[in-house]
Amino acid sequence: MATRNRMPPWHENFKAPSGRELLIRPIRPEDGAPLQGAFALFGPEEVRDRFLQAVDVLSDETAQRLTHPNPKTEISLVAAEPLPPGEAVVGAVARASIIPGTRDAEYAILVSRFLAGQGLGRQLMRKLVKWARGKYLDRMYGDIAQDNEPMLQLAASLGFKQVPHPSGTPGLVRMVLELGN
Fold first, then answer.
1. In DSSP terms, which residues pair with 173 in a beta bridge?
2. Where's the N-acetyltransferase domain (predicted)?
3. How is the chain split among helix, strand and coil, in percent rounded to 5?
4. Which of 60, 130, 163, 176 lies in disulfide reach of 141, CB 3.0 to 4.6 Å?
5. Of 180, 163, 181, whose CA–CA distance to 172 is shortest?
């Protein structure tokens, strides 16, 4: 169950059914090292589903890019322990970015296997959709491995429609939400 009570914009307390309490908030530059450290908490399947390849470590370059989003064109959120940035273990990352020259945004979500199935991905996706609507975009989409059933089901339950991937890449589908702004 998510609750809000006089917190800064885009901050939200999240209590998972397991009882674990997390803070959903915008990513901060200080989250780079904890994010890289927590990368081992993400299972090989989760990483493959998100990066569409086997990745063992989060590179300094990727951590830098994730922790320094351009506020005009992208949002990156984390679900972390309710500790100061830089000290909190990060259990999930969600990002949406406007595709230059379009009114579309691409999203990606990575949730630790320790937090999967507790509604966190749904809450993060709702926040990304809210951001995209606030930017008056036409659509939001994500590229998902065809065998990533939990993410396909989550996206479909929120109104996303499955379309063939434009590149024709086998095993990859695109989930698209028409925002109707």
1. 144, 164
2. 22-180
3. 30, 30, 40
4. 176
5. 163
Sequence-distant (≥ 6) Cβ neighbours of residue 32 within 8 angstroms: 60, 63, 64, 66, 67
CA 114, 14, 27 angle in degrees (round to 5)? 80
User: How long a stretch of residues is the chain?
Assistant: 181
**53 pLDDT band (50/70/90 cuts)?**
very low
Report the C-alpha gap between 58 and 38 in whole angstroms. Answer: 9
- Reduced to 3 states (helix: H, G, I; strand: E, B; else coil), residue 105 is strand
Whole-number pLDDT of residue 132? 96
For the chain, the distance separating the N- and C-terminal CA atoms, rounded to the nearest angstrom, is: 28
DSSP assignment of 149-165:
HHHHHHHHHTT-EEEE-
pTM for this predicted structure: 0.84
Amino acid at 65: R
Give residue-wise pLDDT tens across range 126-154. 999 999 999 999 999 999 888 889 889 99
Distance of CA 23 to CAs 16, 55, 67, 140, Å?
A: 11, 26, 16, 24
Q: What is the DSSP string of 52-81?
A: SS--SS--HHHHHHHHS--TTTEEEEEEE-
Q: Return the closest-CA partner of residue 137 out of 108, 106, 105.
A: 105
User: What DSSP state is assigned to residue 13?
Assistant: E
